[in-house]
Design brief:
By secondary structure, the chain is α+β, with helices and mostly antiparallel strands. The chain contains three helices and five strands. The chain has a five-stranded antiparallel beta sheet. It is globular, with a radius of gyration of 14 Å. The N and C termini lie far apart (about 35 Å).
C-alpha cells in the first residue's frame, strides 16, 4: 500500500514542478480526493481518487489510489485492451470514451503515467471543445 501513496505523491509533485499546479480538494465527504486543473481555463485534466477495488472490477474491498486522465478515444481503447492486468481501465466515474483510469499501485510505472498526464493537460487546453 505504501507504493500507492508514494506514487500519488510523486504525481502531485510532478504536476507542481512541470505545470505549477497544486491539487484542489473539493469534496468534504472525500477529503483526500483531488483534482488538477489548468490555470488558464480551470478545466480538470486529472482526478486523484481513493476507491474500493471492487468498484473498479478488481477483487477485494480494500481501497486503492487511482488517477483519472483525459485521453484520446482511439488511444483509450488500445490502452485499456490489456484490461485489469495492464493497470489502465476505462475512466472511473468519468466519461469512459474520453477518460481513462490508471491504477497507482505500481502496476503502471510513473514513466508511463507522466506522458499520459501531459496528454490529458493538452486535451484540456484552451479551445478544446470536448
Amino acid at each position: 500500500m505504501a507504493t500507492s501513496v508514494s506514487l500519488r505523491d510523486e504525481i502531485l509533485e510532478y504536476a507542481f514542478r512541470q505545470y505549477g499546479v497544486r491539487p484542489e480538494y473539493l469534496w468534504r465527504t472525500s477529503p483526500g480526493d483531488a483534482v488538477l486543473r489548468r490555470p488558464d481555463n480551470r478545466k480538470w485534466f486529472a482526478v486523484l481518487l481513493r476507491v474500493p477495488k471492487n468498484r473498479l472490477g478488481l477483487s477485494g474491498e480494500e481501497e486503492t489510489d487511482i488517477l483519472d486522465v483525459k485521453c484520446d478515444p482511439a488511444l483509450a481503447g488500445a490502452l485499456c485492451a490489456a484490461g485489469k492486468a495492464g493497470g489502465i481501465l476505462p475512466g472511473y466515474h468519468m466519461n469512459k470514451n474520453h477518460w481513462i483510469t490508471i491504477l497507482l499501485d505500481g502496476t503502471v510505472k510513473k514513466e508511463r503515467i507522466f506522458p499520459l498526464l501531459e496528454m490529458s493537460r493538452e486535451l484540456a487546453g484552451s479551445g478544446s471543445g470536448k
